[in-house]
Amino acid sequence: MPATKKLTLADFLALPETKPASEWIDGRIVQKPMPQGKHSQLQSALVTTLNLAIKPGQLGCAFPELRCVFGDRAIVPDVVVVTWERIPIDEDGEITNLIPLAPDWAIAILSPEQSHTRVTKNLLHCLKHGTTMGWLIDPAEKTVFVYRPKQEIEVFEELEAVLPMPEWVEGVTVTVERLFSWLKF
């Protein structure tokens, strides 16, 4: 997708939201592709599964398509997981609309027309700014790439492989087989 002229982060944040979401990277607006069926199903199942495990104990919360503004970028990972104590709240005790931090865990689901390189750059940007884990899920290849700060990228494609989770996540186990079984009806 072609990018537009450079503008400031404040200018970008003042613009109306787009569908699908737009991101601000290197002073340019980049619109994400419209999610399709597999993408939406995996996103929904991940958010539900993670929140059932981590929200009751106030370990954290998973959010779909939440804009995060940090490190001179405004990005919208497919799933953002933030530890409970880092969720920004306003004076009413509600989550703020602007999330001025890198997520603790960022999950990207590759769409057919999406650039693997662009998504990887966003995950690496997250890791550089404090994210402890990133997943890049490729539904077409039934593969999950796991990114951690200053570590070699791990590739998971064997059905029985258990996907690693951040240390603070308790009560949920997801194998490659379970993850991609969410696509079947």
Beta-strand portion reads 15-25%
In whole angstroms, the N-to-C terminal distance is: 32 Å
Helix % is 10-25%
Number of strands: 10
Main sheet makeup: 6 strands, mixed
- Poorly predicted parts: none
H/E topology pattern: HEEHEEEEEHEEEH
Read across the widest sheet, the strand sequence of neighbours is 3-6-7-8-9-10
Radius of gyration: 16 Å
Alpha plus pi helix count: 4
What order do the helices and strands come in, and which of them pair?
Blueprint: H1 9-14, E1 22-25, E2 28-31, H2 37-54, E3 60-64, E4 68-70, E5 73-75, E6 79-83, E7 105-109, H3 116-128, E8 133-138, E9 143-147, E10 154-156, H4 176-181
Parallel strand pairs: 7-8
Antiparallel strand pairs: 1-2, 3-6, 4-5, 6-7, 8-9, 9-10
Question: What features would you describe in this structure?
Answer:
The protein is an alpha+beta fold and 185 residues long. It is built from four helices and ten strands. A six-stranded mixed sheet has the order 3-6-7-8-9-10, with helices on both faces.
Keywords, please?
185 residues, alpha+beta, six-stranded mixed β-sheet, 4 helices, 10 strands, 23% helix, globular
Short description:
By secondary structure, this protein is α+β, with helices and mostly antiparallel strands.
